[in-house]
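haha ok so turns out i had the wrong file open the whole time. this is the CORRECT one, sorry everyone. sequence first:
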Amino acid sequence: SLLIADEPTTALDVTVQAQILDLIRTIQAESGTAVMLITHDLGVVAEVTERVMVMYAGRVVEEASVMSVFEQPTHPYTLGLLGSVHSLDAAQRGSLQAIPGSPPSLVNLPTGCAFRPRCRFELGPDSACVTSIPELSPAGESRSACHLPATTRVELMTRLSA
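then structure:
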């Protein structure tokens, strides 16, 4: 059995949000149902999920345990998402970081990696970033879709997310 919950807590106050999430947990525990939670709310993701798939332009760009995604993101988009979320330790981390540019039109995707026009790690104008769509491959504890070599990516993301 699978319960698909698409943005179940969007635009709800925190009290009602907590009640909805408790209801989902209860349904899952009592019926043994798997839950697929579709949301843009990273706080909800951190609170209730075990595994995460981060999507960009209709494709999975990172897949990992929730702890791995929050502690050691391995895709530039995931790093950007986490840097753009307000947290209680924001004063220690500095200001929120915006992801430059705009998401692409899904009817007119760029060639190669869809995130390339917004990526600070693009490998250059003649690189695989421009010519081919990256596939999910192992990167640390995660799998992510990026042409930057996995070891370089893990090292860069660790340094930038610290």
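The two ends are 39 Å apart (CA to CA).
again sry for the mixup
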